[in-house]
Amino acid sequence: MITAGVDLSASPASTAVAVVEWREHGGYSAVLRELVTPADDSTIRALVDAADRCGIDSPFGWPDAFVEFVSAHHRGDTPKDSRLDDIASRRPLAYRRTDRYLVEHGLGRPLSVSADQIAHVAFRCAGLLADLGVSDRVDGWAIEAYPAGALNHWGLTSRGYKRSTHRAVLAGLVDDLRAAAPWLDLESHSALMAVNDNAFDAVVTALIARAASLGGTGLPSADDLPIAHREGWIHVPTGTLDDLR
């Protein structure tokens, strides 16, 4: 099996792609075959083409309430008495059901796809999903991944390792990942992971894709499923790192 992970950014310069090969030798082992950054859309497509499952660190959609609100505003039909001076009234416009689910279950606090700069990433992702022929935003060949949620669940550092000022934290996190998953062969790519958080997150995203392929990530309830098909659904592992072997 081959899984790919894409740490998507609005710019190719900050985008990274990882490709992991899973092999069985009395138990699965994994080898990080490719780790590429920067990566434009054509590079992403070439690298993930042979993958059995692909994880992408980007929102796959927007909140239903936000889409309806913007459409109404565009038509000049903004509802009166919306009480949008109250942050609680604006929250459904900012956060998807999957975002709220993660917060409710202590799995993280994703950025708002409609109110934060990550919207630029989502614009790019929408085009990439179309180019890759991905229509299932819940549990298809490509799944929406959230590295911070996975790291938190696995007991690894999930915050404070990004940006050049935190390189020592990032390098320590790479060591922690190797210790927690000694069956994962990073080959010569560990040096890049230790200085580039996009590259590190791409590898984690490929691991999340593996978890999804084994049925080891949380999926929406029957009530949430129709919403998730429109808004997207974040996959967070439910098992241990060793469960990926």
Automatic annotation (TrEMBL):
It comes from the Bacteria. It comes from Gordonia jacobaea. It holds the Pfam family DUF429. This is DUF429 domain-containing protein.
